[in-house]
Structure formats: C-alpha cells, structure tokens
Specification:
By secondary structure, this protein is an alpha/beta fold. The chain has 7 helices and 18 strands. It has a 7-stranded mixed beta sheet. It has a 7-stranded mixed beta sheet with strand order 9-10-13-14-15-16-17, covered by helices on one side. Strands 6-7 form a two-stranded antiparallel ribbon. The protein binds fe (ii) ion (2 copies).
Length: 293
C-alpha cells in the first residue's frame, strides 16, 4: 500500500561535506557525508541537515563560505550509525543553538558496530554523541523504524526490510553484539529520505548499506510512483566485485532512474563503469555541489 504524502514545489540539495572538493575549491573535503536539504512546499518550508560528517568543524567552515546560517536548520536526519555520518552531530546541534531540534534516526543507531580486521575498530556512533550528550546539545531523538512524513512531499524510507537477491549480503562486513556474542551486522539502521516532486521522486541516501536497488524499490513501492528523477548519495560499491557493480547499475537503469549523483563510498572502481554505462545520467558528487529540482 502506498503512502499519500503530498508533493514539494521545489527542492535544493547542497553537498556540505564529501570526500572530494574538486580542483581549486575553497571548501574543505573529508571522508564522510553531510547534505543540506531545502524543501519548499505550498504550506511549509524546511531546512533539513542530512548526516553530519565526521566532525562539525569542516561543515561549519564550509557553511560560512556558502553563506548558510546553521540556526536556520529545522531538522537533523541520520542515515546510519557510522562515525563519518554522525560524528559532527553534537557540534552541529550546538551551532544550531536551539532547543528540541528533532534528530531522526532508526532505533538501532546506538548499537555497537565494529570490525576486527585488521584490528578491532569501533565504527558506530562515537562516545561524544551518546543520548545524554545529544539532548544536552539541544537535540530531541525520534527513533523510528517506520517511514515518517516530515512535511508535504518529504518522507523517510524507514527500515529497508525487503532486500533484492543481489543485495542480501551487504558490501561491508561488520559485526554487532547479539546476546553477548559478536555476529554479522545487517545494517538495519540504514535509512534514506524520499522527496516527491510533481514529476517524480528524488531518493537521498548516506552509504546505501541496505543496497541502493532495494532502497529505490522501497521508495517506489511506498509512494506508488515509478518515476525516479534522481538518486543521490554514497552507493558503497568500493568493496564490491565488478560483477556486482555492473548488476547494480543495470538494475538502476532498469528502474528508469533518470540521474545518478554518486560519491563518497561509491568507490574508484565504480566511477568509470558509471560513466560508461550512464553517460550524462551520472554525475560525481563533490563538496559544494548543488542539485535543484
Ligand atoms: Fe560513509
Ligand atoms: Fe557507512
């Protein structure tokens, strides 16, 4: 069953932080993601911060150059637990300087997530961004695993429960703790945002650990809209074998995704394949890039 959630009249997405800043840029780059979403509907207008990079310093530095005032941010959305998407959370909340700023994420975002290869390393939400610190910095947590409507034309995907065969196994093998034992982590917390415009959908993802094809399919099913204007985000194909990269791109083209804006963890192996297969339908993300719909 699809969800009726209205449509936006315009959408602008700015890359506040990404792994590259392009040649001769004044902006800082960093391994991580943070996007600023300006969503304009007939009844409301919201500024949404999608992920917060590894630290707030670089994001705030870039925002000053881009002349964006942090205190104008209304909502923060966290796509998943990784330090390069959540590390700047408390710093950004302090810069926003308001009380009870909604911080939306999946309930599993605070779980332990780690690797033991080549050595033990913690990868999830760091100790500086625990629940008490987030609330102290002005955030109010809304931990939901179901889709959430934020305004007309803006919906979160909720947990991606149906994963296509190609994406049943995540491209990144990490561990979590279940009943005192280390077990494979399935990225239950990996959620994305969907924007509905009169012409179709835009899907914004962090690292697409749940699988970009599964994410797009869930968005199409949820909204009952098959036109996908764009997907934007990291596709986490950097650890995927070439066959999986090819099949992923083929599936996106079969879903009629008109534009693929990919960066961050998409990976150097995937970019030339995307260029060859998608031509002008692919653009690389970089810090400072803007996309308007
Ligand atoms: Fe990432
Ligand atoms: Fe990630």
């Amino acid at each position: 069953m699809s969800v009726e959630f209205g449509a936006l009249s315009s959408l602008k997405i700015t890359v506040l932080i990404e792994d590259s800043a392009g040649f001769d840029s004044k902006l800082l780059a960093q391994h991580g993601i943070s996007f600023l979403v300006e969503a304009v509907g007939d009844e409301s207008h919201k500024l949404i911060l999608f992920d917060t990079g590894q630290n707030s310093f670089s994001i705030l530095y870039n925002m000053e150059i881009l002349k964006i005032n942090p205190s104008d941010i209304d909502i923060i959305f966290l796509s998943h637990c990784h330090y390069d998407h959540t590390g700047g959370l408390c710093g950004m909340l302090e810069a926003i300087g308001k009380r009870r700023v909604p911080v939306i994420a999946h309930p599993a975002i605070f779980r332990h997530q780690f690797t033991v290869e080549p050595t033990f390393k913690f990868i999830g939400m760091g100790p500086d961004n625990n629940r008490a610190a987030i609330e102290h910095a002005g955030g109010e947590l809304f931990l939901v695993d179901k889709p959430l409507r934020l305004m007309e034309g803006v919906l979160t995907t909720g947990e991606i429960k149906e994963r296509v065969d190609l994406e049943k196994k995540p491209t990144l093998e990490l561990l979590t703790m279940t009943e005192g034992k280390a077990s494979a982590d399935y990225f239950r917390d990996d959620t994305s945002m969907i924007f509905r415009l009169p012409e179709g959908l835009v899907v914004l993802a962090g690292c697409s650990h749940a699988g970009i094809v599964s994410i797009v399919k869930q968005a199409v099913k949820l909204c009952g809209v098959s036109e996908v204007l764009a997907i934007i985000g990291g596709l986490h194909l950097l650890t995927a074998v070439e066959e999986r990269i090819e099949k992923t791109i083929q599936s996106l083209l079969e879903l009629n995704v008109r534009m693929i804006y990919a960066g961050h963890c998409t990976g150097q192996k995937a970019y030339p394949i995307l260029m060859n297969r998608c031509g002008k339908r692919f653009e690389k993300l970089y810090t400072g890039k803007t996309m308007t719909f």
